[in-house]
Amino acid sequence: MNIAVHNNLKALVDYYHENKLSHTYLLETNDIEKCYAELKIIIKNINCPHEYQDNCANCNLCKLLDNNYLPSFLVIEPDGKIIKKEQILDLKTRFSTIPIYTKENIYIIKNAECLNATSANMMLKFIEEPENNILGFFITNNVNNVISTIKSRCEIVKVFYEANMDSIYNNPYFSLVYSYLQKIELEKSKAILYNKSIFLNNANLDYNLIFKLMLDIYIQAIKVKMGEEDQEYSEQFAFLLKNDLKELRRREQIISAYLEELIYNVNIELFLDKFVIELSDFNE
User: Fold this and answer.
1) Contact at 8 Å (CB) between 168 and 30?
2) pLDDT in tens, 147-180
3) How much is the CA Rg of the chain, to the nearest whole Å?
4) What is the pTM of this model?
């Protein structure tokens, strides 16, 4: 498989051939559409009736799958803002038959956080009593937003792609995070106050996405420090680049650790205060 696919997705092919593939996966990613496209490549790979080749033209499988015409393959996306019970009923009806063309009936649920209590409960039969010929994938940009009954029954795989400046600038939290980091870097003595004035006064924030954005911003700063010139970044994020490479890496490691901690049900106010103290390092 020469086409570039995320390593954590490529691993699914090995698991399949080793007969270690789980029945249900929850994929957390920062690019749902890219993850979905690469997942379809993996599905082609494990179901190819010949030896899989990139851009294979030896069978109908790829064409059918690319156009979502494959009888044993179903993609579910939110209808409006939620995934409705009728969509799950359709899945159950479709997959009550033996799969055609593929070794399993395969479903992908995009934006799995949009499953409500009713539709999620209807999905549990597929997860709690898995049949050998059904393989399921849930895709989300934040596992913490997926209903716990689904999340706890899936194997979680992280599929994060390297961010570019376009994805950073287009992030809905960019202005908020930019202002926050600028204040922390330039006015450390007041850092804790910014948790209240910037974050805690805003309701319903997605802290998982916020911390992923912070991480992407520092990763880009490290690249610039290592000689990958980016004039636009160097001008806009000059307040970060005053740090040396070692300090930028320290901040990257801190943010990564706190991002992992967000998996748990944390007290967000205490979490942010602890984070900003460690990131600012008042003793440096």
Assistant:
1) no
2) 989 999 999 998 988 777 788 888 889 999 998 9
3) 22
4) 0.69
Q: Give residue-wise pLDDT tens across range 211-230.
A: 989 999 998 898 888 887 67
> Which pLDDT does position 284 carry in this prediction?
46
Domain boundaries, the chain: 7-159, 165-280
Strand order, beta sheet including 24-29: 73-76, 105-110, 134-140, 24-29, 155-159
Half-sphere exposure of 90 (CA within 13 A, CB side): 13
Distance, in Å, from the CA atom of 128 to the CA atom of 154, rounded to the nearest integer, reads 10
C-alpha of 162 from chain center: 12
Please name every residue paired with 26 in a beta bridge, in sequence order, or none if there are none: 138, 156
d(CA 182, CA 277) in angstroms, rounded, equals 15
Q: What is the CATH number assigned to the segment(s) 7-159? A: 3.40.50.300
pLDDT digits (tens, 9 = 90+) for 95-114: 888 887 888 999 999 999 99
Decide if domain 165-280 falls under CATH 1.20.272: yes
Task: Give CA angle at 232 (227, 236), nearest 5°.
Answer: 105
- Angle at CA 236, nearest 5°, toward 235 and 238? 65
